[in-house]
């Protein structure tokens, strides 16, 4: 309940400030949610900030490599003839 109240308070403040366009509103909501996620991770003391940044960059690099490899795998597959 406390967390939902926080989000609703942030949304009402955004509307009061005049951020009416959906793009601005969605960007602000994503920023708020990311900051809350980071706060939770730091409170749990899972990793330090530096470690978190390094690990997130490694994951991004792996995702890019994976996306590059997926089209190559699709080209290599052959269709089997039905008899």
Structure description:
The chain has 83 residues and is mainly α. It has a domain at 2-59. Helices cover 81% and strands 0% of the residues. It has helices at 2-17, 22-44, 49-76. Helix 1 (2-17) packs antiparallel against helix 2 (22-44).
Low-confidence stretches: none
Number of helices: 3
Form type: elongated
The structure class reads mainly alpha
Sheet with most strands: none
- Tell me, rounded to a whole number, the average pLDDT: 76
Q: H/E element string? A: HHH
As a percent range, the share of helical residues equals over 70%
Write the SSE topology.
Blueprint: H1 2-17, H2 22-44, H3 49-76
Salient structural properties:
3 helices, mainly alpha, about 0% strand, single chain, about 80 residues
Give me a quick take on this structure.
The chain has 83 residues and is an all-alpha fold.
